[in-house]
Specification:
This protein has 304 residues and is of the alpha+beta class. Helices cover 32% and strands 26% of the residues. The chain has 7 helices and 16 strands. The strands form 5 sheets. It has a 7-stranded antiparallel beta sheet with strand order 1-5-6-9-14-15-16, with helices on one face. A 3-stranded antiparallel beta sheet has the order 2-4-3, with helices on one face. A hairpin with a 2-residue loop joins β10 and β11. α1 runs antiparallel to α6, α3 runs parallel beside α7 and α6 crosses α7. The longest helix is centred in the last third of the chain and has 24 residues.
């Protein structure tokens, strides 16, 4: 998944705990083998190769994750979209450093993007594409799903407290460390990575971060992030980073991209339909309101 998973865990059995943590990391590897589009032998890569020729029967777990991703697409009015692979390649973010594509390249890529190209059949558990060139990329939801799988394993193994981090971009805080009220999670400054912008205290909750500093490039005085607006075919603009607090890692992982694309104003209606979700938007400060940090912070919260 192109990131390092880190786990800190507390349990009653000192001998069993290392084995349980190893089992958790093995589970991350299993999810990666199932859902990676970088591994040519993964079930997801098989879908990408064959689904334009015929419906592909997939594992129930993979089908459910893809169906869940499609639900986030519908609920966000297309801001979250797992068919953005052609756009990522056109903009040079698939194994590259990033570049501005030509108008022709962008037009070709955009023709293959959109959930309407993907047909899911729950009865037969098949996935089909309506044309060649369509592909699925679970990079916007897979890391959070793997975190949730680890948390579920820990709960079954009676691990009372753990912090599970997928590259620092999606983290789940299970319980609380001994003698403390929760886990302390520091959020990096979106402009100066040496600074801390926000400190959160979490218990039985996930935090996910999407930001342009994670992977971006500059051309013609404009900074382009790897987070695509599927509706325009271009990298989303206007937001430095987004921090989402959510009940699950899967939800947080999908929502941080969706809210990054939507921005504060267009996110309100969607956020109000969600449960137990908080969003922090880091926006570049205007010249008039320029603070020493160079950004302003907007916090929004779901109604339930």
């Amino acid at each position: 998944m192109a990131c390092e998973y880190a786990i800190e865990a507390y349990g009653p059995d000192a001998d069993a705990l290392p084995r349980i943590v190893d089992e958790a990391l093995d589970e991350v590897d299993r999810v990666d083998r199932l859902m990676s589009h970088y591994k040519s032998d993964s079930p997801l890569s098989r879908v990408n190769r064959e689904a334009a020729q015929h419906p592909v029967v997939v594992d129930p777990e993979l089908f459910d994750v893809i169906a869940d991703a499609m639900r986030y697409h519908d609920e966000s009015n297309g801001a979250f979209d797992i068919t953005v692979g052609p756009l990522m390649k056109a903009w040079g973010f698939f194994g590259g450093e990033g570049r501005v594509p030509s108008d022709e390249e962008l037009a070709v890529a955009r023709r293959h993007v959109g959930a309407a190209h993907v047909m899911l059949n729950p009865a037969s558990r098949t996935i089909a594409f309506d044309e060649p060139g369509v592909e699925l990329d679970l990079g916007g939801i897979g890391k959070g799903y793997a975190v949730d799988r680890v948390v579920g394993l820990f709960r079954r193994r009676q691990i009372a407290a753990a912090l599970v981090s997928a590259g620092g971009s999606t983290i789940y805080a299970l319980g609380a460390p001994p003698g403390r009220d929760g886990w302390t999670v520091a959020i990096q400054d979106p402009i100066d990575s040496r600074k801390i912008a926000l400190t959160l205290q979490l218990e039985d909750r996930a935090v996910s971060v999407a930001g342009r500093s994670e992977k971006s490039f500059e051309a013609g005085g404009v900074t382009y992030s790897h987070i695509m607006d599927p509706r325009t075919g271009t990298p989303a603009q206007g937001v430095l980073s987004v921090v989402v607090l959510a009940p699950t890692g899967t939800g947080g992982d999908a929502l941080d991209d969706a809210f990054f694309v939507l921005g504060p104003e267009r996110s309100r209606a969607y956020l109000h339909r969600l449960h137990s979700t908080d969003v922090f938007f880091f926006l570049a400060a205007s010249v008039r309101e320029r603070a020493s940090a160079g950004w302003t912070l907007i916090q929004q919260r779901s109604r339930t």
